[in-house]
Structure formats: structure tokens, C-alpha cells
Design brief:
24% strand; Rossmann fold
């Protein structure tokens, strides 16, 4: 695919005798919101962990904008690939703002000599990170909670906080792991609105989601996995017309 931003070629990962990801070749279209669906055990989370650098592949390649993508999660974050988790785990005792300010990589104050000898630089970085973090918190509607302990906000607000932390890295691609799970309808709509606004500005998303209404309304294309293999790639409309998917995943067609 000429306009692919994230690609895999022959990606494989096994756990003992279980082939969790089996020869997966994908092209994620630049500027898309790509939905990744499949039953529990299909390999979706393993695929995300391979993309994000949590797990090394047994075989195959991953590329971002045509460049090989390897190394640990922090290296991939620096390269422009962000990832959120199904169950957010913020630093509970730190404030919402502090959680977001921690996200940028390579801060001077993270090293012993930087903290001792570069105090002026540390203060300057902190001021810039604070200003940027507040802009992002305002975007995700969490600015009024900036000084609240992150462990005391709602589950839906934690999902927005996860997104805010990822945005501090200015990613070109964001992997979203079940963004609507456990979120009340009002905050779900807020989250969807932010995803669509970021997408309209050029950010590409790959979304694992079991809420088929979410997938059918907001994702194009849709990719389905089963037993570690890709069994379908196409539009939401094509997915709804595919008998195997209707039987296995979707049930009755979802109204647009």
C-alpha cells in the first residue's frame, strides 16, 4: 500500500506450542482509524505488544514510515508510535498534571549529573513541559483536574489521561487498546470526539475494540484476527456483509 504508515511483514510470535501471531502482514493506511477485531485469544493484544516493543517477534518485520521499527517501547515512543492500555495505570499519588509531564523522553533532570549541573536547563524544560501538558489537558477536558491525584479520577477520565500522556510525545501513530471499555457514555463520546479531532489533524490510529458499534461507526478499515491470523481486511460495510464475521463477531448488522 503506497500510503501505508505502519506495516508488518510475516510477523510471528509463539508461546510454547501456541502460535499467538501467525504470519501477520498488515498495511495501516496513513490517516486512518483502523479497527482491529476478533474473539478473545485471537492474538490482538499480542500483536499490539509486538508493535509497541513489549514483546520481540520470533520472525517478521515492523516498519514505521518505511523505516524498520525495533527496540523497547521507549524507543518506539520516541520514533512516533504511542500506545494506550485497556486498564490505565497512572501514578496514583501524583497529580494528573505531573503524570502528563513525566511522559517526554530524555529529560535532563532524569540523570544525576543533569540534576546537579543543569538546574537552569531543568527549570526551563519543566516550564515548557508544564505549558505543553496544560494545553493537552485542556484539549482532553482534564484541565480542571490538573492538581487532583490521578488515582482519584474516574475510569473514563483515566482513559483521557492515558491519551494525554501519549500526546506529549507528538506521535504519528497511536495504538488504542479498548478505549471505550468501562467508560460511561458521556465520557465515551468525549473520547471519541478527541480521537476524531486528532485523526482529522493527521494522527493515525489502530484500535482494539470489542464494542462493535464503536468499530462500525468510527473505524475504516476493519481488520479481523482469528487464531493469530488475519482473516479479513476491508471497510466496515464489507465487514457487516461478510457472513463469517457476522456469525463469529458481529451478530446483526449495525446501523450506520
Amino acid at each position: 500500500m503506497a500510503d501505508a504508515i505502519l506495516t508488518t511483514r510475516g510477523l510471528c510470535r509463539s508461546f510454547g506450542a501456541l502460535r499467538a501471531v501467525d504470519d501477520v502482514t498488515l498495511d495501516v493506511r496513513r490517516g486512518s482509524i483502523t479497527g482491529l477485531i476478533g474473539p478473545n485469544g485471537a492474538g490482538k493484544s499480542t500483536l499490539f505488544n509486538l508493535l509497541a516493543g513489549v514483546l520481540p517477534p520470533d520472525a517478521g518485520e515492523i516498519a514505521l514510515e518505511g523505516r524498520p521499527l525495533s527496540g523497547p517501547p521507549e524507543a518506539r515512543f520516541a520514533a512516533g508510535l504511542g500506545r494506550t492500555f485497556q486498564i490505565p495505570r497512572p501514578f496514583a499519588r501524583m497529580s494528573v498534571l505531573e503524570n502528563v509531564m513525566l511522559a517526554p523522553m530524555g529529560q535532563t533532570g532524569e540523570t544525576l549529573w543533569g540534576a546537579i549541573l543543569g538546574r537552569g536547563k531543568v527549570r526551563g524544560e519543566e516550564a515548557r513541559h508544564r505549558a505543553r501538558a496544560m494545553e493537552i489537558l485542556d484539549f482532553v477536558t482534564l484541565a480542571p483536574l490538573a492538581d487532583h491525584p490521578a488515582g482519584q479520577i474516574s475510569g473514563g477520565q483515566m482513559k483521557l489521561l492515558e491519551l494525554a500522556r501519549v500526546l506529549m510525545g507528538d506521535p504519528r501513530v497511536i495504538l488504542l487498546d479498548e478505549p471505550a471499555a468501562g467508560v460511561n457514555p458521556v465520557l465515551t463520546e468525549t473520547l471519541i470526539g478527541k480521537i476524531e479531532a486528532l485523526n482529522a489533524a493527521g494522527t493515525t490510529f489502530v484500535v482494539i475494540e470489542h464494542d462493535m458499534d464503536f468499530v462500525m461507526r468510527h473505524c475504516d478499515p476493519v481488520i479481523a484476527l482469528a487464531e493469530g491470523r488475519v482473516i479479513f481486511q476491508g471497510t466496515a460495510a464489507e465487514a457487516q456483509a461478510n457472513p463469517a464475521l457476522l456469525d463469529a463477531y458481529l451478530g446483526a448488522p449495525v446501523d450506520a
